[in-house]
Amino acid sequence: MTLDTLHDLLVSQLRDLHAAERQVLLIWPQLAQEATSPALRLAIADHRQETTLQVARLVEALDLLGEGPDGPRSRGMEGLLVETLTLISAKGHAAVVDAAILAGCLQVEGYELVGYGTAIELADTLGLDQVVDLLSRTLVEEDAARRRLEMIARTEIHPAAGAAVVQVGPVDDGAIPITSAPSRRRARRASNQGT
Ligand SMILES: [Fe+2]
Question: Are 43 and 149 in contact (CB under 8 A)?
């Protein structure tokens, strides 16, 4: 499609979001299955249900514009999903793999948040109040999903991944345990306690 008007750009943006959400819907079950953290699994499963609703809202928004949802696949979202799936296919310590899955989910949410935020601005400029209302409901859900993931990362998954220990070398022959480096904040706290 050509980009002759702001309307064209909004349609293009909504179609990309529609394709992106549908691509994510296909991958959520795989990410949930690979995750070992019950909290992360539940967050993904809950957001998958919301995503189904969000796809329907995008169809409704496009309908209000007199357009259909069909468009090319979202290459932006495809890139993020391929990166995450490639990363976790390497396997490794369960807690670190959980952290990688969570990082991938946050990247997906970031893509969606920027996409919806931009679409809302475009629709608002065009005076399309119903479209703004529909997309704003989704934006609230996306933001809540992002905050929930960040909370799980901070309280559970990053501390567990940070404590991951890998044995290098033969176990009975002076194996060298490698742990994640202490965070700068922790290192600073330790040095302050020593003074
Ligand atoms: Fe989302």
Answer: yes
Residues by chain with Cβ below 5 Å of ion ligand 1? 112, 142
Q: What is the CA(43)–ligand 1 centre distance, in A?
A: 11
In sequence order, which residues have a C-beta less than 8 Å from that of residue 124 and are 6 or more positions away?
Answer: 132
CB 58 within 8 A of CB 115: no
User: Using CA atoms, how far apart are residues 125 and 127, in angstroms rounded to an integer?
Assistant: 5
Sole residue written with tokens 């980009």: 3
Structure tokens at 74: 């979202």
What is the distance in A from the centroid of ligand 1 to the CA of 81? 13
- Sorting pLDDT into bands at 50, 70 and 90, what band is 195? very low
Q: How many other CB atoms are there within 10 angstroms of residue 33's CB atom?
A: 9
Domain ranges of the chain: 6-164
142-175 pLDDT, tens digit per residue, is 999 999 999 999 999 999 999 987 655 555 555 5
In angstroms, how far is CA 111 from the centroid of its own chain?
7
Residue type present at position 11: V
**Class of the domain covering 6-164:** mainly alpha
145 alpha carbon to ligand 1 midpoint, in Å?
7
Write down the H helix ranges in the chain. 6-34, 38-64, 75-89, 94-125, 129-152, 158-162, 184-193
| d(C-alpha 97, C-alpha 146), whole Å | 19
